[in-house]
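Exercise 7 asks you to align residues with tokens for two separate proteins.
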Amino acid sequence: MLDPVKVGILGLGTVGGGVVNVLQRNAKEIANRAGRGVQVTHASVRDVSKPRSCPTDGIVLSEQPTDIVNRDDIEVVLELIGGTTRAYDLVMKAIANGKHVITANKALIALHGNEIFAEAQKVGVNVAFEAAVAGGIPIIKAIREGLSGNKINWLAGIINGTTNFILTEMREKGRDFNDVLKEAQALGYAEADPTFDIEGIDAAHKLTILSSIAFGVPLNFEATYTEGITKIERLDVEYAEQFGYRIKHLGFARCTDNGVEMRVHPTLIPASRLIANVNGVMNAVLVNGDAVGPTLYYGAGAGSEPTASAVVSDLVEVVRTLTVDPENRVPHLAFQPGSIAQKVRFLPMDEVVTAYYLRLLADDRPGVLAEVARILSETGISIEAVSQKEPPEGVNQTDVVLLTHKVKEKHLNEAIKRIEALQSIKGAVKRIRVESLH
């Protein structure tokens, strides 16, 4: 067998430590699969004196990550420090030095992947990023390779464990959003500043990547509509259940004749769908191909060893291809570089067609529902179901909840504006999109 491939790791924190542990524990299996051994020889850390979650015998630690990317004897660099500015500089330097790169950094790929892959293509090195989406679920390889015989029609994913945990707790235990968020932070599921998770940015980074490899389009994070879960109330969760739906924070992408639609937002999903029953911090991605139909991928979306599993799978792939001509490797974004569509129309939300859940606070008097129905009818919107609660004694207002059939979002926006202008309607109309995921 050939000499082991020497690897340098940028960042020896939760994921980096997990990678070292998996590589050491499964060294024999990994070598047998890759065709040669893998040896981590160097790692960069913020503080060399800090205790580690993995053994560091035989690993030279440095507080200067440039020491790693500039070493002639290192063939593969693992970027596990996160962020986009310094990580981008280090990755581009590693590529310029002729090193293969593996990253778990979804923001880096979503925002800068186009230029990173172009540079890697010029130099003839590989950039792998399985761990950037859905942790330990091998969804990148599934779409890029396992479903390569399909035209992907659409995909939908629960791709952020924090938001899924919060919505699960709200549904199962009747808790309020802020209460569950505090627990998620205490458990380590959410950061002290949870903005990236609860506002949907993390999921949007991941959906951008999935859309690119599914449809053969450039990475375009700016075209991804992004909406978080901060406005979801316990009432909405309860009403959705009564209609036979679950609220999930869903990333949804579809390739249509009018363009590519990419959106992340709270979504009502029929409770009978498998993906609607993915709970807690788990992730799942549903992919619909023209030949295979719907396929579901489920597993841990984060964590030390689940993420390490994806990083090591990329490492095995890179080691296998070290002797392969760059032109014959699996393309970074699934399609050959010259086949990536450059003139792509990404649909604005105004043109997206879907069904909707509407909740409005209305005066409890005859004729109010008729006024609302008239406005919906005049804007071409038909009602699928309606529920009006009897208000408590002495209360003159009540919640009216409607499910609509599919409609273009700009028409719904027009209808909502007119409904909110009615004297009988108090405050803003709550709107949540609905996907049947047939």
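Second protein for Exercise 7:
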Amino acid sequence: MRFLPLIVLLGCATVAGRDDYAAYREVRLAEADDERRSAIAEYLSAHPNGAWADDLRAEHDAAEREVYESNKSDAEGLRYYLRVYPEGQFAEQAQARLAALDAVRVNRQREADTDREIHRERREQGLEERRQWATTAISFWTRILLGVSEWGKPISEVAAAHPEFNDAFRADPPPRCNASECIKYYELDFAVPVPGQTRIERQIRLVLRLRFDGENRELVRAEMLMPDRGFSRWYELSNTEFLETADPEQRQHSIDWALERLIPWVREQAPQAQAVDVVPEPIDPPTVGAMGQALETDTEGELVLPLALQGLRTAGLEIVVFAAADDDAGPAYDGFFIRRVQPDAE
């Protein structure tokens, strides 16, 4: 009698056929409940009239509500239910819940993608604004200074006549003044990639100086000074490209690049300006320093005679663009100045 179950089982396998038995064997070998229910569903789908179909279908139907209730709260569980009970009594509800959950997931993914895109755009915008920092400042002050019409008058009258000039000069960084000049110091640290290296740290500085004459502090000159071969630093910042300043060809390239930007800005504000020959003159270092910064007059050596790159004259003003010469003894600047000239000097 103890051999009867084996004989009966083998007999069923013989009657059922190998495929039927193989599918049923997957049910018997399933260890976890979810694996067993999946195996039963596959068996019933492949062998709806199989040797074990009635018993397995009864088990399958009895477990449906429990399977649905325990899996209805998340998308993966609902997909599991629909795999096991594709035509079950809760299939319509499961499809609706799954569609709603998928819609929420898609919306959240879309929001996350949008947030990432906004973050990327803001980051790129910030990088671009940083890259254009010097260009923005220099072009702004070129326009503001050439818009002044009260040259030779006290600085108080200039400020009163030009609110934009007054607001810009009072803004941060605050100007530092004495009886003969007022200066705003700008600076920005940046890095540029270097072939064969990771990057090199740089700093660009802009020194905006107004110079006065007489007890009433008449405005007679304005300067945009860029120390430490400032045109080269400006080029590196704007183009994210390393320049070997000691290389004459690369240095000249940065000077030409700066001229291509400065001269059109000047001509835009002073379209009647005429080119003139100018004699290079040393640029006196500032007499008032930025907070916590040593004055450049501390530098030993004689003043450097800059290279006068281009001169323009219009309506009692002379505009001169200059660059530091190769001789680096003493304070040397790139930049431009605007000065009032007497009628007999025109």
